[in-house]
Write a structure and sequence with these properties.
single chain; about 270 residues; mainly alpha; about 0% strand; globular
């Protein structure tokens, strides 16, 4: 465990060195937060309870989404491109010789990355949103603790999905296409564009049952109290945990099959 803790700390420090990029990311997230907030205000003025949210909850959705954008990698840009490149070049052989599990190694590194971005690129946009808009933020410390647990599970689900995408490079010469499709699916089905409860009928129910909803929709709903009571909150966290376990298990199976027959592309 100490090895993976060190990897997580290393991942945190690695991303902490990109100070200019971090500042630019905070600025961009905040600006887009204002754009989305005023768009949501216009929508909710016409439909005051669209998707079951009041305007305060809808604005909270916007700003929490901006706070989690980098931490949960809702738009991609995490480890998957680096891992795909290592597979393509054959450097993955070095990783497989390490006295550490490949999946656990990359998960630890991604947790460190997520921790940095949650602090560096999450706090400022959410604070800006709370200063300029009336957000529905809880005063109960327990609700915030449950939200952070939900965010942790969201990061793990996001990692597990992107790990599956990265492993496709074992069979594909170029994983860019799969990565792009994955990012589009995440953007649409996580709630990054609109809360999934806005989608009507069966389509909305299916969207909320997919793993991407565990990356944003569920954490926001936990924060604003849309899963009342201990049973409701436990059900929401259990939904995330179930997808995390399932996707990590599929990733481990896929990794096992890939590494039994490693073909180093290009030599």
């Amino acid at each position: 465990m100490r090895l993976y803790a060190a990897v997580a700390v290393s991942g945190f420090r690695r991303h902490a060195t990109y100070r200019v990029a971090t500042a630019a990311g905070v600025f961009t997230n905040t600006v887009f937060g204002f754009i989305l907030a005023y768009t949501f205000i216009a929508l909710w003025d016409e439909r005051p309870h669209l998707g079951g949210y009041d305007q305060g909850q809808a604005l909270t959705f916007v700003w929490v989404g901006q706070a989690l954008l980098a931490a949960v990698s809702l738009l991609g840009g995490g480890f998957e491109q680096e891992l795909q490149e290592r597979i393509r070049k054959g450097d993955i052989a070095v990783d497989l010789y390490r006295p550490a599990d490949l999946q656990a190694w990359w998960l630890a590194a991604d947790l460190g990355r997520a921790g940095f971005h949650l602090l560096a690129r999450g706090v400022a946009p959410l604070t800006a949103g709370a200063l300029f808009f009336e957000l529905t933020l809880p005063s109960d410390p327990l609700r915030w603790l449950l939200f952070l647990i939900s965010v942790l599970l969201a990061v793990v689900v996001g990692f597990a999905l992107r790990y599956l995408v990265a492993l496709c490079a074992f069979w594909l010469l170029d994983g860019a296409g799969v990565t792009m499709v994955s990012q589009l699916m995440c953007m649409f089905f996580s709630g990054t564009l609109l809360p999934l409860t806005v989608f009507p009928g069966t389509f909305g129910q299916v969207a909320q049952a997919l793993p991407w909803s565990a990356m944003l929709q569920v954490p926001v709903d936990v924060l604003v109290g849309r899963h009342p009571g201990a049973a409701g909150t436990a059900g929401a966290l259990g939904f995330q945990l179930g997808w995390a376990v399932l996707l990590l298990a599929v990733g481990r199976l896929m990794q096992s099959r890939a590494t039994r027959k490693v073909v180093v592309q290009g030599g």
